[in-house]
Amino acid sequence: MKRLNGPLLELADATPVFDESSLPPVPLSMRVMSGECVVIETRDMSRATMFSDLCSGMVHLRNGSAHFMGMCWDDLDDRHRNALRGRIGRITRRPIWTDLFGTHVGIMFKELHHTTVSVPDLTSQTVRLCTRFGLPGIPVETPRRLSSADLVRVTCVRAFLGQPQLLLIEDPLEGSPVDISGAFFECLTEARDRGASVVWFVRDSSVWQPYRKAVSALWRLADDGLLTVRIR
Amino acid sequence: MTDRPTGQGGPPQHDNAAPEDILPNDPGSIAHGLGVPPETFHPDEENQENATISERFVYFLGTLGALVRKQVWFLLVILGTMWGVLRESVRPNSWRRTVRYEFQLTLSDVAGRGLLSTLVMGSLTGVGVVSQAIYWLGFAGMAKMTGSVLVSVIVRELAPILVGILMLGRSGMLSLAEVGMLATGGQIRSMQAEGLDPFLLLVLPRTLAFTVAGFTLGIMFSIASLTTGYIISRASGALSNSLFSFFYDVVTAMTPADYLLIPLKFVVVGFLVGLGCCVSGLTASNEDSLGTLLPRGFSRGILIVMTVSVLFSLKV
């Protein structure tokens, strides 16, 4: 994966429209370079979801701009935006699973759509990730039939599959019915070694402490915007 | 095979743009639907009292415009998405693996699983309508008119309506419920966050699958009804000629325009039933549930089927 010279993700005084995002309508500025891991503490995970949407160019801005891979979301047409979003891996609290297909299709759906990787290659990548996260293989049942522990696992697999260049992660560890922290940290480190950036939203600071040494920056998302915090 | 996702730098080698008509102007809308009817024009009470005549006139026009837009909102959305489907369907880039997969799934459901229902309904129509028509035409001494009457009544008028209603009830409502639940549940928004355009993934393949299925089922319905009608008439003694001769009479009764209009009618009915159901589901708002979506979708679907039938009958 090529590393960009500039920031992979950049918010430059991005002021979201409050009505559609419920984010504080204050200028938000943040730069995330390739390979960095930024932790953002927020009490409200729905706000984290909307902030992820902002980083993905899905929230209208009153002022400022949001750039990903050197491109401003506002300057792109729908096709380019969708193509760029295909390079973002997300773990979100918003419902993502549908019962239209089996879980195996759901996991690989984004890669099947955005890339031309052959199905056998994609399957072997998925199997490797599933095994790493403690699954015996790729689940083929509909997501509704999976246990909550397995759902957490396949959500992580889905996010890390396809070597995304940006990971927007709403913390899957806190309150998880299963301990996946080992595999999760390994995948984070691997992704960063490839040059991917990570934005990790947490509610509780204790969650990211085991990974503290590798964290590049700590921010807090609050009513008055995005505040930088010194890592202790 | 390359494992490089496209979209970096130059023009992407894939991706779609759903028509702006159905894409949300409020991507962050907490209502996850892809659009809601325009709000009615609300007066500013204080300004109204002190308004001049010209301001009152402008306000009246605004109210009138909002009212009209609210009434024709769905029609405008359908027209926009119709153009979107036609435009995207001819682009090779639109037909990615995921879109083809959805197309195959929908086609096998609508045409494959709906075939038996269509044949049964066609047979019942043959028993109830075709055989009766043959009997009474023979009784009235107008047996030579049999072919043209059957073409006019069964193939041209009745088949598209019944097939449309069958597709609407059997598969259209299912599509509406699935897409509607995705929209109200937030999964549509999640798809967009991953660069998966719901228009390309759901509306386009499903609409085209309904289109193909509409033609297929329409032809099967016509064959089943005419064959059953012939068998019943032959058994009751109302007919004495062979099956081949009977079908020859029907085919020769068709005008050259019929060869274009009848398949076109099946295709258009299928296309609009599929599109109407998908769009109704995609435009569901947070207040919607299955209890509100299904009746609305069904009434819209029936309206679509009847409108298409009437317009074709008028040769519009």
From TrEMBL, chain A:
Matches recorded under InterPro entries: P-loop_NTPase
Record Gene3D superfamilies: P-loop containing nucleotide triphosphate hydrolases (3.40.50.300)
Record keywords: ATP-binding, Nucleotide-binding
GO molecular function, one term: ATP binding
Domain of life: Bacteria
Protein name according to UniProt: ABC transporter ATP-binding protein
Source species of the chain: Acetobacter aceti
UniProtKB/TrEMBL annotation, chain B:
GO molecular function, one term: phospholipid transporter activity
Keywords from the UniProt entry: Membrane, Transmembrane, Transmembrane helix
GO cellular component entries: ATP-binding cassette (ABC) transporter complex
Region (Disordered): 1-48
A Pfam family recorded for this sequence: MlaE
TM region positions: 110-137, 149-168, 199-224, 260-285, 297-314
Keyword Membrane: yes
Domain of life of the organism encoding this protein: Bacteria
Entry keyword annotation includes Transmembrane: yes
Protein name: ABC transporter permease
Record lineage: Bacteria, Pseudomonadati, Pseudomonadota, Alphaproteobacteria, Acetobacterales
